[in-house]
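Fold this complex.
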Amino acid sequence: MEVSALSGATFLQNLFNGLMFGGLYALLAVGYTMVYGILRLINFAHGDIMMMGVYFAFYASLMGSPLWLSIIIGVSGAAILGFLIDRIAYKPLRNAPRISALITAIGMSFFLESVAVVVFGAVPKSFTSVFNDNNKWIMDKTWNILDARIPVMTFLIFFVTAIIFLILFWIVYRTKIGMAMRAISSDIPTTSLMGINVDMVIGFTFALGSAMAAAGGIMWAMRYPNVFPYMGFMPGLKAFIAAVLGGIGSIPGAVVGGFLLGLLEIFLVALMPGAAGYRDAFAFIILIVILLIKPDGLLGKKSVVKV
Amino acid sequence: MKKINWTLNLITIVLFTLFLSYAQGNFDDYTLRIITLIPIYAIMSVSLNLINGITGIFSLGHAGFVLLGAYTSALLTLEPFQKELSYIIVPIQPWLLNLHANFLVATLAGGVIAAIFAFLIGWPTLKLSGDYLAIASLGFAEIARVLANNLISVTNGPLGLKGLPNYTNVYWSWGWLLVTLIAIISLVKSSYGRALIAIREDSIAAESMGINVFKHELMAFVFGAFFAGISGSLYAHWLTTIDPRITTFGPLLTFYVLIMVVLGGLGSITGSIIGAGVFALMFEYLRSLEEPFDIFGIHVPGIPGMRMLVISAIFIFIMIFWQKGIMGRAEFSWEKLLKLFGIKIKKPSLVEIYMKKEGESK
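Structure:
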């Protein structure tokens, strides 16, 4: 396949695109990694929770709410949805074989997708309607940096992502509930003996992860204004790969893995334009390679199999 | 008992063949199509059950193998002039153009290609544990779909292959189901099958008993993929049009097959067949949900997508409240059925078997 060289300007442009994509993957990957760290469950429905969050924001803005309110509605709607899904579908299976929970998660993913098809319709919708005349400039404006034309949106997404991560790290490492989350991820039974309401903390984890996914999804939809019921499937899988890449269970790992995957993907397409169609396959090849070389991921702890 | 089993099996097969030939002549096309579809689904679910339920490797890549089988056999059964006509975007690879085979060879080729790919993909991924394997195999299925979408000179890309001869009839599909069952049941009953079950129950213990876990898992994976490829060929010639869309050979198909396996009971071959039958019938029955209907004089418009919604809700319900499925891990046996009708077959006791052997050796 033909390899093309990159000029300085295109390099910069791709770098920013990669960082933006990476940030979006990282936002999703954190939700995966937190749930996996606590429950050892791949929450297949995570990408679809993101999709629902985007639809909530979309319909809120259709009903006339301003952009900031739509975003709040989307994010908090997804958080509530994540919490409810844990309560209804995953909680009854806490003591069941892990495979049952995994299968339920797959079922949940398809359930959310079909709910979206039935309620919102299968036809892709344009997310641009969230912009009115006052904030239309966010969508169109571009900045010129060293001959590279970079949309303002890319910067905005990057900075919002950074702020969200700062808040997340503050919650996980500086608050009581964060401490409880970290305690649960190392030992559930002991934590419950310490007087911590384990179910509440798990529910909070789901809500937090889902809120971040929705925030990522809404920004995604602002940049690529296309909303449809299956939009969460591929990003969801890729975010899981990002989480594995960084070491599943580790929150800094998920962030690093997300950015790395985003950059790798963008530069693959930039260097080999002919390979653009294979972009989705590329992430899975990375997954298999990383699992074979370093199964615990870049920042993961070594896992020990107890016999 | 063995003799009685054989006789009863044979009688069932003969009676069923008679029923099929009656069905072929007298049933309408729609019913026949469903009767043809059930065994195709059953082959998919039995082969996935060998991997997921009996060996305990959680694979989500079944649709990928079905796709490989479907494309391989479709490329073999299409006439050269048809291929030349349908490859509009990019002309077909010259070496593919004149490849042609009859349906049986094409189906076998589909199975073999799927098995080869299962070997290639299984070699690296089966070293992974549980959840990672699930994602990696799902990823493999997606890679297969992405390839089918992009290797336009081989697969005709997003346009797919149209006008496949409608070869799959009740005899082919039920016949292949019989072959699948004979092969998989004999595998499960052999010492290999015992090893597979041991691996499912506790792979570390099995390893320490001297079972080569990796080799056995790879064998089950390749075996399952072979029959998935066969079902793919039958499915392709049932659909007569194949394309690499998410809904045809994507994760949705794997999800359907998983529903069949779980509904019937993870680990039960009989259960998988029942699960496939129930799923196919339910799927057809639920079609009415998507059509407009009138109730008490009120016109209710058809709701597209309602079918999937109901099916995934049922699926989640099964997983939460009824994890065993219809059969659990139990298998059908004539002995149990006869017992139900009050007929008891006297099993020779160990002493009698011993005495008989003693007598033979004297």
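The mean pLDDT of chain A is 86.
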